[in-house]
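Journal club side-thread
Mid-discussion, someone asked how the predicted structure for our own chain would compare to the paper's figures. Pasting it here so we can look after the session.
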Amino acid sequence: MTVGLSNSSLLNGKTCIGLENAYEVCRKETAQWAKTFYLGTLLLPPLKRRAIWAIYVWCRRTDELMDSPEAQARPITELSDRLDEWEERTKSIFAGNIETDLDAVMADTLSLFPQSIQPFLDMIEGQRMDLHRHRYETFKELELYCYRVAGTVGLMTQGVMGIDPAYTSAPWSDSPDPSEAAIALGIANQLTNILRDVGEDRGRGRIYLPQEDLKRFGYSESELMAGTINSNWKSLMAFQLHRAREWFARSESGVRWLSADARWPVWTSLRLYRGILDAIERLDYDVFNNRAYVSSWVKMLELPLSYVIAQTR
């Protein structure tokens, strides 16, 4: 088999294309489906960027168990069984058992960057939440979901990014927990996804904006489903964007404690993803008919700016 075959057949089936080719498939898939994230990974050293691509593809496979068009047509009981199977397969990878090309790149990544299995299991649990929950009454409930499906990514990738040795010798008062910052960045990214994808999610019957916030701003679920844009909607969205930016701000304190070769890419990814919030504002909060994104010229501008920030903060 060659890398030209589909990602699914290469990384999900019991194929044998070789470790280097399997990593290349992971690179291509990351570049295709996570353009902003991918740009940040290119600033990492080769071993670290490959590990991040492998983790990304594992996370994407986990997400596809629930959100792919094929999964949407299947009954809940079957989706639940598939999540159970995926959990057992993940445990098997951590135990050193390799059956597929994705198993191989993940096992290689774990050998180079050892870490706990718990964030991986927590992410699978987040997918289980999507089986039965399509609404969240409070932000506290939504925060747990965001941790499981995205804060966990912060923990997974932190193991690859590494921590600066200076962190262990820093005064306690000046050394926030890098893990908390990593989780905060993941939650910030997920909140951004939710705000960008409100229109798409409603098509699947899902509303991730907390019900308490809809009530607070006098905006009904029926209006959301109809894509109504009024002053209440704009106030609601402005509040949500402010909350997401607060989570990005929480994450910033931990970036300074990452390994020197990881600070620039993380700052770049953080600032670019936060830029999606700015794009939503430029659309005047019309996420029903438009998709917010960061333009190519802004990405190019952010690269040197992020580099300077990485050297000074």
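Post-session note: The radius of gyration is 20 Å.
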